[in-house]
Amino acid sequence: xxxxxxxxxxxxxxxxxxxxxxxxxxxxxxxxxxxxxxxxxxxxxxxxxxxxxxxxxxxxxxxxxxxxxxxxxxxxxxxxxxxxxxxxxxxxxxxxxxxxxxxxxxxxxxxxxxxxxxxxxxxxxxxxxxxxxxxxxxxxxxxxxxxxxxxxxxxxxxxxxxxxxxxxxxxxxxxxxxxxxxxxxxxxxxxxxxxxxxxxxxxxxxxxxxxxxxxxxxxxxxxxxxxxxxxxxxxxxxxxxxx
Length: 243
Description:
By secondary structure, the protein is α/β, with parallel strands linked by helices. It has seven helices and 13 strands. The mean pLDDT is 95. Helix 5 links the parallel strand 11 and strand 12. It is elongated and about 60 Å long. The strands form two sheets. Strands 7, 8, 9, 10, 11, 12 and 13 form a seven-stranded parallel beta sheet that branches. It has a six-stranded mixed beta sheet with strand order 1-4-5-6-3-2. Helix content is 34%, strand content 28%.
């Protein structure tokens, strides 16, 4: 299986591809590829192009496009995950695995019980988060990079979520409304999924979500860690609604 790389559309001038920067360095130094080797390049349009390398030097990699096709791995469902801010390693794990599963957009959300409650400190981590998303998208065969939105407060996130066809708010205090019952006979194209931080959502936050049209749902009888809940709910939604 050829290695996959997301590159700028400016690098693609059919029938040739000209790659510079970190990606060229990875091809040359880390992977030690040679002219004649093949890679797949993606420009975030949903197309993937198979490229035969023709020239490699200290600053750039050049290649010839030999095939082009729509990427088959993008989900039909546009799922936005509003993830309550977690400790660094857990949040990065959600970004990585959520990308692999098919999440379309991540929104770091500052909640009352979030360990991290400073949007400025979150902004400093965005370059690393973007890199995690890109590497996971390349590894999992995605055709588009999930969007990483700026961190925002829960009230701001609920306003952003109004563009979705369905807003879901899993809460451990809600035991009588199961996720599968809410999804029955529904075919939403865009879903907003809210997952709380390590300490969960507060009752006030749950009421606020309901005021904004969110459906409070249960993910089952067991209490899940925040990062587990994010991936369990994302998997269920993408499986049921078009992953």
